[in-house]
Design brief:
2 helices, alpha+beta, about 90 residues, 5-stranded mixed beta sheet, single chain
C-alpha cells in the first residue's frame, strides 16, 4: 500500500495534478469543499492518474483540510514515483 500526501485546491478551473509542492502532491479540483465532494474529486483524479479503481484510493487523514494523506491499495511508493515523479522534500 502506498501512502501519498496531497495539498488540495478546491474550486479550481479544472481537475488536475499540478505537481510536487515539497513533500506533497498538489491537486486541483473543481468541486467545492462541502459534503465530501472535494474529497471524492481528489480520489477520482488520483485513481485515474494511477490507473487504479476509485475504491483503491482512500483519504486516511485530513478529510476536512487542504492537507490530506491518501492510501492507495495495491500500489507501492515506486508506482507513485513512476506516475508522479519524486518529491523534492528539501523545498518545504
Amino acid at each position: 500500500m502506498a501512502r501519498l500526501a496531497v495539498h488540495v485546491t478546491p474550486r479550481a478551473g479544472r481537475d488536475e495534478v499540478v505537481g510536487w509542492r515539497g513533500s506533497e502532491l498538489s491537486v486541483r479540483v473543481t468541486s467545492a469543499p462541502e459534503g465530501g465532494k472535494a474529497n471524492a474529486a481528489v480520489v477520482k483524479v488520483i485513481a485515474s492518474a494511477m490507473a487504479v479503481p476509485k475504491t483503491s484510493v482512500s483519504v486516511v487523514r485530513g478529510e476536512a483540510a487542504r492537507h490530506k494523506v491518501l492510501d492507495i491499495a495495491n500500489a507501492s511508493d515506486h508506482d507513485v514515483a513512476a506516475v508522479f515523479g519524486r518529491s523534492d522534500e528539501s523545498l518545504f
